[in-house]
Amino acid sequence: MLLTEIDHIAIAVRDLEAAVEYYQKAFGATIDHREVVESDGVEEVLMKVAESYIQLRTPTNPDSPVAKAIEKRGEGLHHIGYRVDNCAEALASMIAAGATPIDKAPRPGSRGTTVAFMHPKGSFGTLIELVQE
């Protein structure tokens, strides 16, 4: 089994501060990590849930994939991040199984992770992120 656990559930939001406040009030969640990921055009906040995270993401520019997703589908579930021990191995396995890669090779992600995204078209309608810590 290449997947070790759910790393995070990513939610695209227009107003990051409002979303953080909501999760704090509704669930008592606290911010575990906050980062601007220039390469993805997003600012994200991670809120710890057991060994996983809720990742709230907002676009930092109108051309980012998250901005386009919000424009097309509105706010809400953006992707699921699966934790793996070896991102390159998991990426190759998914491609061999018929998945459509967005990233042709693993690349740096937030929190010092290594990541690779898979297109929803090849993954039953779900944008998937492979995350190696």
UniProtKB/TrEMBL annotation:
Gene3D superfamilies named among the record's database cross-references: 2,3-Dihydroxybiphenyl 1,2-Dioxygenase, domain 1 (3.10.180.10)
UniProt source species: freshwater metagenome
PROSITE patterns cross-referenced by the UniProt entry: VOC
Keyword terms, alphabetized: Metal-binding
Residues in VOC domain copies: 5-133
Protein name according to UniProt: Unannotated protein
GO biological process: L-methylmalonyl-CoA metabolic process
GO molecular function, one term: methylmalonyl-CoA epimerase activity
Entry's family note: Belongs to the methylmalonyl-CoA epimerase family.
Coiled coil region boundaries: none
